[in-house]
Amino acid sequence: MKSKIRIKDIAERAGVSVGTVDRVLHNRPNVSPTARERVEIALKEMEYKPNAYASALALNREYLFVILLPKHEKETYWEEVEKGVEQVSIDRSDFKIRVERISYDRFDASSFRKQLNTCLERQPDGVTIVPFDKNETTRAAETLRKAQIPFVFLDSYIPGLQPLSFFGQDSFSSGFFAARMLMLFAREEKEIMLMKMMKNGRVSTQQQVNRESGFRHFMQEQHADIKILEAILPGNPSEEEAADVFDQFFKVHPNVHHCITFNSKAHVLGTYLLKRNRRNIKIAGYDVVGKNVDCLKGGSISFLIAQHAFQQGYYCIETLFKAIVLKQPVSPMNLMPIEFLTRENIDFYHRAF
User: Fold this and answer.
1) Do the Cβ atoms of 283 and 260 come closer than 8 Å?
2) Where are the domains of the chain?
3) Is the pLDDT of residue 64 over 60?
4) Backbone φ and ψ of 165, nearest 5°
5) What is the residue-wise DSSP string for 34-77?
6) Are 295 and 301 in contact, with CB atoms under 8 Å apart?
7) Which helix (DSSP H) or strand (DSSP E) does residue 86 occupy?
8) Residue 185 in contact with residue 250, Cβ under 8 Å?
9) Does an H or E element contain 282, and which?
10) With respect to CATH, is domain 63-169+309-338 assigned 3.40.50.2300?
11) pLDDT at residue number 46
12) Same topology between domain 7-50 and domain 171-306
């Protein structure tokens, strides 16, 4: 086994002072080109492998990472994301990592721009960003790149913007898969409800747009004769508002027995169905939040697709830590599994961490 290489050993090999070696190792100024070259040659000849953790701790500086994500209420996918962010802050506390959350209105482009500016005012070392739409996110990426702030995408991937890294599902494939699984239950149906929550003519995330695209692609390819009927709810409906929409929908479409939604709010319809004892209608939805699980066990939801929200939040910040603090290479594309959960296996689903 090789003995530990000391800075003194490197200095002797290069014929320079210990202080010069230290400055080269930590990329500090005031080193002549000749001395730097001699040290780098010595490092290569001695096969020196720096201890990234020790070097980062030795710098004794603070780091600020910001996560820019949608505002949300309780019982959503975003709560699990935030728990992951909190955990990595604890795990890396020795390195003086501080993470700040900044939230924007998911239906308001001006809110996204305003909160991006708030983020820039904090002068962060790195940013995790949940994309808005393609145009706004493109502008945000250009702004961050111009400010030389590394950024990671969470939840939705937009091609061509070259983030440092991405964590999330392949949303199109996820929607395609959801359609395939739904049709195992609904093969004989003529109509399917698509429940959407919209405000100002848009859903809350680009991810939902991509999922719906994948879903419709499968349906057009495999079941073009089945009608997809949209039930549109306001962005954050009250129970009464949702009930009014559903009452009207099922009055007009009494033969609908299956529904799908691409957000984490399948429980809004699921709770409605359980309260009215409508056992002949089943739902396909996303995300392991408490109310969805209750509806899954109660029988109004047929299946949920999980996407490891906790891990996404954790690894986005961990990736910034590795790239910026430890200066290690990171993987640019990190696709989360598309997991199929039913009432039979939901109790065995845990955070894989």
Assistant:
1) yes
2) 7-50, 63-169+309-338, 171-306
3) yes
4) -160, 165
5) HHHHHHHHHHHHTT----HHHHHHHH---EEEEEEEE---SSSH
6) yes
7) helix 77-91
8) no
9) strand 282-286
10) yes
11) 83
12) no
Phi and psi (nearest 5°) for 204? -80, -25
Predicted pLDDT of residue 26: 72
- All residues at 6 or more sequence positions from 121 whose CB lies less than 8 Å from its CB, including other chains: none
Tokens coding 42: 């010595």
Q: What CATH class has 171-306?
A: alpha beta
Whole-angstrom distance, CA of residue 26 vs CA of residue 28: 6
CA dist., res. 260 & res. 52, Å (int): 47
- Planar angle of CA 122, 319, 163, nearest 5 degrees: 75
Superfamily of domain 7-50: lambda repressor-like DNA-binding domains (1.10.260.40)
Place of tokens 């202080």: 19
CA distance 238 to 73: 12
Cα 143 from Cα 149, distance rounded (Å) = 9
CB-CB contact of 279 with 299 (8 Å) = yes
Q: Which residue has the tokens 């039979």?
A: 344
Listed residue (118, 100, 106) closest to 72, CA to CA? 106
The chain-wide mean pLDDT, for the chain, equals 91
Residue 160 clears pLDDT 50, i.e. is over it: yes
- Do the beta carbons of residue 325 and residue 319 sit within 8 Å? no
**CA neighbours within 13 Å on the CB side: how many for 61?**
11
Angle in degrees, CA 87, 101, 67, rounded to 5? 80
User: Hey, what are 150's tokens?
Assistant: 């590394």
Kindly state the average pLDDT of the residues 91-116. Answer: 93
pTM of the model: 0.80
